[in-house]
Design brief:
With 356 residues, the chain is of the alpha/beta class. The chain has three domains: 194 residues, Isopropylmalate Dehydrogenase, CATH 3.40.718; 107 residues, Rossmann fold (3-Layer(aba) Sandwich), CATH 3.40.50; 34 residues, no CATH class. The protein is 40% helix and 17% strand. The two termini are 22 Å apart. The chain binds nicotinamide-adenine-dinucleotide (NAD). The site of nicotinamide-adenine-dinucleotide has 19 residues, from loops.
Length: 356
């Protein structure tokens, strides 16, 4: 089957990485037609915004996008383009598989975790009150002595709707991808209202998958220790926004860091696939950084589209090139100054060649 996918090359190192990722996906056997949409710093001057409406329209039309990193301009009151995109398209689930590939330098072997993070609420809702504001004072008086009078306040909303929706997503993902267990992570011994609701919603969803996918719960602090000691015991982890933000970077660190960590932001109908890392502006245009994370994001995208064979082919080729350790970028060499390191383009070409 042929698919049309929006390709946002991004800015900074984005265009070079997207170019490599596109070549690899084109060589995978899946029939993808690319609807290329420029966004980010490159279009700011001409179109007055880093995220023109035509980009959102294209994603809404095609339902699937592969996106290079986009820089958040400093100052000028512009919010993160990446956050805006997730909000505009209601991409409520952030999916971050963290798998160790032999040949990647890391402290652990055999880690294969998936972090599912709720993307729309929690302390990221943006409901904040400065110290001394009328709203902060009102909340201080409502709190009956539990909050100091000069406190700034950020609100943490957790709803039953969003909690159930994200846990359902995690179970469905587990089931569709042959995963054995979902672990819910929060901290209800302290946040009885919000995190208590998250766990209660999770237990309701877990009942629907009884006998199919296992379920367990960990407090977030204990989970952190588990992950740095015995990451192989865990499978799919699901959690509210803030814990998810922190634990997904922790898990990326377990498997070798930013250069190899893919991701996706997924809604009811629309999915945007992107690497975890940013636009690394200091390396822009140097054909230097690692294309693996965006290529693996492309493999995730192929799997999402139902092109499992093509996705496996991409993943196997990436694994082979990394295991061989020759045609890899500087960050994957034992020594960062290794003169045998290849560039972004050459690593992409080696992956294409490994697909045979
Ligand atoms: P960054 O991820 O861009 O870079 C930090 C460092 O990580 C780089 O200097 C480099 O040493 C390393 N690195 C990143 N990607 C790499 C790769 N593919 N291969 C090898 N090394 C790599 O983080 P930053 O410097 O904090 O952010 C730069 C810009 O990117 C900011 O404007 C930020 O807002 C934006 N950003 C965008 C996204 C996104 O598009 N989803 C995500 C994170 C940050």
């Amino acid at each position: 089957m042929a698919y049309t996918v929006t390709l946002i090359p991004g800015d900074g190192v984005g265009p070079e990485l997207s170019d490599s990722a596109r070549r690899v996906i084109d060589a995978s056997g899946a029939a993808i037609e690319w609807d290329v949409q420029q966004a980010g710093l490159n279009v700011m001057d001409e179109e007055g915004t880093p995220l023109p409406e035509r980009v959102l329209d294209s994603i809404r039309r095609n339902k699937t996008a592969l996106k290079g990193p986009l820089t958040t301009p400093r100052g000028g009151g512009i919010r993160s383009v990446n956050v805006a995109l997730r909000k505009e398209l209601d991409l409520y689930a952030c999916l971050r598989p963290c798998k160790h590939y032999p040949g990647v330098r890391s402290r652990f072997e055999g880690v294969d975790l998936v972090v599912v993070r709720e993307n729309t609420e929690d302390l990221y809702a943006g409901v904040e009150f400065e110290e001394g504001s009328a709203e902060a004072k009102e909340i201080v008086s409502l709190a009956g002595g539990k909050i100091r009078g000069d406190a700034a306040i950020s609100i943490k909303p957790i709803s039953g709707f969003a909690s159930e929706r994200i846990v359902e997503f995690a179970f469905r993902y587990a089931q569709e991808n042959g995963r054995r267990k979902v672990t819910a992570v929060a901290k209800d011994n302290i946040m009885k209202a919000t995190d208590g609701l998250f766990y209660r919603s999770a237990r309701e969803v877990a009942k629907r998958y009884e006998g199919q996918v296992e379920y367990d719960e960990w407090l977030v602090d204990a989970m952190c220790m588990q992950l740095v000691q015995k990451p192989e015991l865990y499978d799919v982890l699901v959690m509210p926004n803030l814990y998810g933000d922190i634990l997904s970077d922790l898990c990326a660190g377990l498997v070798g860091g930013l250069g190899v960590a893919p991701g996706a932001n997924i809604g009811e109908e629309i999915a945007v696939f992107e690497a975890i890392h940013g636009s690394a502006p200091k390396y822009a245009g140097q054909n230097k950084v690692n294309p693996t994370a965006l290529i693996l994001s492309g493999a995730l995208m192929l799997r999402h589209l139902g092109e499992r064979e093509a996705a496996d082919r991409v993943e196997r080729a990436v694994a082979a090139v990394i295991a061989e350790g020759e045609s890899v970028t500087y960050d994957m060499k034992p020594n960062r100054d290794d003169p045998t390191a290849v560039g972004t383009r050459e690593m992409g070409e080696a992956i294409v060649a490994a697909m045979g």
